[in-house]
Amino acid sequence: MGRTASRLEMGDGTDKCGRFGRRRRIVDCGVRVLGCEPGEKGESCADMMSEDEIKELLKQVKYPGFSRDIVSFGLVKAVEVAGGEVTVRIEVATKDAQVPQTIFKDVHAVLERIEGISHAKVDIEVKDAPEAAGGAVGKSSIPGVKRIIAVASGKGGVGKSTVAANLAVALSARGLKVGLCDCDLYGPSIAMMFGTTERPDANENDEIIPIEAHGLKLMSMGFLLEDKSPVIVRGPMATRYTQQFLRQVAWGELDVLVLDLPPGTGDIQLTIVQTVAVDGVVIVTTPQEVALIDARKAVAMFAKVNVPILGLIENMAWFEGDDGKKYYIFGEGGGVREAEDMNVPLLARIPIDLPTGRGGDEGRPVALLPASENKVSAAFHTMVAELNV
Question: Residue 261: which of 389, 359, 163, 129 has the closest Cα?
Fold first, then answer.
């Protein structure tokens, strides 16, 4: 069709964003386009650009609240170019109406910088959209599951899985049907914490049958691997495993499904909020500032994707010696002050406790103990009562 070959390369971000024109070398928000000029028959630059080149440009559009772009997340399903008209088809699953609106605006902003586009159409299909006022509350996209609660942390090593396990046990003690899904693919620990090495089977619908222990239904990568086998997968495969754990496990009828998330604010967290309707998240931190910094990031991320923050748990708040004195090993009251600053409830302050650590290693979460026998168990049962799940 008489077009001049063009190529794309990453820009250094030092030039100003501009428009595509005849023999211009410019940076359009980080993407440099070389050699774009009208063809012999007068085709516009847009007419000469391929679908892949336009997709490359759309990598400038970040998913709201994240550093990753909509193309890498697989949200751009099709790009059609015909006679100066460009149509971009996008699918997004979210409960936040602002997310598709922001993506719509940002995609248009990219397309409008391409000289020669006579008409740009952005078609966004929203799945699991926000319910209208007066709609059902607590509705989940997992059949049979009434409510989904996530347990998250910005930083690893703060005891998030211990909190998730004991939260699930305490919920079950209130007579609720509870499931626990270990979404921490790279560091699964739920299998050990519940003392089982069973391998899950599949039912006639090719769904994974969760393992049952201490009255809970469990799913974890730890049930599928040997103890010393690492999980070595890239982001897209981790996303696929996470979706399978949520949507292809025969959870049955549950009052609550607790999700033990990996630390941080990355692909798996976004996959979860796009795959299922999370009713709320509990943030776990320790008192020192190095953990609180990342807890703030976790709170900000979930707020951006419209997941309610149920509250904050200050774990390892102190160690109580035989003399009854409290030793604040990681600093005093950091979680208390942070909850006040973020205007979220402080759900509990959990001390360092030998029976808690021993119970996790031996497959008996401490919340199985009567509240009268252990202060940490009492803290979890009190917290669950106040959550009013």
Answer: 163
Q: What is the pLDDT of residues 154-168, one digit of tens each?
A: 778 898 999 999 999
Q: Are the C-beta atoms of residues 217 and 210 closer than 8 Å to each other?
A: yes
* Strand, helix or coil for residue 72: coil
Q: Of all residues in the chain, what percent are helix, strand and coil, respectively (each to 5)?
A: 30, 25, 45
Superfamily of domain covering 7-127: Fe-S cluster assembly (FSCA) (3.30.300.130)
Of 175, 191, 190, the closest CA to residue 255 belongs to 175
Spatial separation of the C-alpha atoms in residues 362 and 350, rounded to whole Å:
20
Distance of CA 228 to the CA centre of its chain: 26
pTM across the whole model: 0.64
DSSP 31-43: EEEES----TT--
Look at domain 145-387 and name its CATH class: alpha beta
**196 contacts 363 by C-beta, under 8 angstroms:** yes
End-to-end Cα spacing for the chain: 64
The full DSSP string for 307-364 is --EEEEEEEEEEEE-TTS-EE-TT-SSHHHHHHHHHT--EEEEEEE-HHHHHHHHHT-
Q: How many CA atoms within 13 Å lie on the side-chain side of 280?
A: 15
Q: Which residues contact 287 (CB under 8 A, 6 or more apart)?
A: 314, 316, 317, 328, 330, 331, 332, 333, 334, 335
The upper half-sphere exposure of residue 236, i.e. CA atoms within 13 Å in the direction of its Cβ, equals 5
Tens of pLDDT, residues 369-385: 999 999 999 999 999 98
| Contact status, residue 283 vs residue 149, Cβ threshold 8 Å | no
